[in-house]
Amino acid sequence: MAEQYGFFVDSSRCVKCWACEVACQQWHEIKAATVHRREVREEVEGAFPNVKRAFTSLSCMHCENPACVEICPQGALCKREEDGLVVQDKTKCIGCKTCGTACPFDVPEYLEIEGGGFLMDKCDGCLSLGRAADETPRCVNTCPTKALHFGKLTDMEAMADEKGGARLEGETTPSVFVARRQH
Question: What is the DSSP letter of 64?
Answer without folding.
Answer: S
